[in-house]
């Protein structure tokens, strides 16, 4: 009996370790962390979500405006503006730093990637690396971007998919916090639900292990309309994982009152942590010369 149990454990362990590792990064534009708690979000609730910060380190060369252009480039390169040099939303810039797409493809040419960006400037700002991406779209609506991502995940067996969704940010700019902003969050939750179903389908039918990361690029001002400045509200973001993180991640207490920007930067997750987390999960060795500005969020 002991031998049979041992063989069963070894069999299950072998199945687990042979799963193909995949990553889905869902970028949600302009979603204020505190607003999530105000609406019922069953799909967001499936994630382990921790408070984070954007905008670089206040008062240093890494400080950057809390706008979408610099923030998304930071998320996808793992470095602040003093390295990637993106300083605004203008599409007449190109990142000076390599992105996760570059790190994945040059480390393992067999890895298949996609960048689906509802806001087209993200792909334009990373123009130098887009030739390495196997599938890319830019522009359109969130529902269309979600459908494209679902189809790619279910049918193409990609290894890394980035999908950017924009409607929450539009609601903020148009109406500030309130009913329409909350409704946009509810719709976003539905889109995330579709993406979850697609990854669950792959997990169950193709022996894959999909690691899903949620991240937002920036917070908003006190009324929810704008962003760009170095305030606690505008610098507050979140990072969500569909599994337990390491101590760096888990030790963040979302309920701790933040009184200063310095406290925010010391006690929450920097958005520069996304790239090293993706690389860690996909077993891509992180090189010193990449000069990434954070450590991974998983062991």
From TrEMBL:
SUPFAM superfamilies: Alkaline phosphatase-like
Name used for this protein in its record: Alkaline phosphatase family protein
Record organism: Polaribacter batillariae
């Amino acid at each position: 009996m002991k031998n049979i149990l041992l063989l069963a454990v070894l069999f299950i362990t072998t199945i687990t370790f042979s799963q193909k590792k995949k990553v889905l990064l869902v970028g949600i534009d302009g979603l204020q962390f505190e607003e999530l708690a105000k609406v019922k979000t069953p799909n967001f609730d499936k994630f382990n979500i921790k408070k984070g910060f954007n905008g670089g380190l206040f008062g240093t060369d890494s400080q950057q405006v809390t706008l979408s252009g610099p923030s998304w480039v930071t998320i996808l390169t793992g470095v602040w503006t003093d390295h990637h040099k993106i300083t605004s939303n203008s599409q007449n810039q190109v990142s000076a730093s390599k992105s996760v797409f570059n790190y994945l493809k040059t480390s393992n040419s067999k890895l298949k990637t996609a960048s689906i960006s509802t806001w087209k400037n993200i792909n334009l700002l990373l123009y130098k690396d887009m030739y390495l991406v196997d599938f890319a779209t830019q522009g359109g609506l969130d529902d269309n971007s979600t459908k494209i991502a679902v189809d790619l995940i279910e049918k193409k067996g990609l290894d890394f998919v980035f999908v950017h969704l924009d409607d929450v940010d539009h609601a903020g700019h148009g109406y500030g916090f309130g009913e329409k902003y909350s409704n946009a969050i509810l719709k976003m939750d539905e889109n995330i639900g579709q993406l979850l179903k697609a990854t669950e389908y792959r997990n169950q039918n193709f022996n894959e292990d999909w690691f899903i990361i949620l991240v937002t690029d920036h917070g908003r001002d006190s009324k929810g309309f704008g962003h760009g400045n170095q305030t606690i509200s505008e610098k507050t973001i979140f990072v969500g994982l569909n599994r337990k993180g390491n101590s760096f991640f888990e030790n963040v207490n979302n309920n701790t009152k933040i009184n200063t920007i310095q406290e925010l930067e010391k006690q929450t997750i920097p958005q520069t942590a996304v790239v090293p987390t993706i690389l860690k999960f996909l077993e891509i060795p992180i090189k010193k010369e990449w000069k990434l500005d954070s450590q991974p969020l998983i062991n």
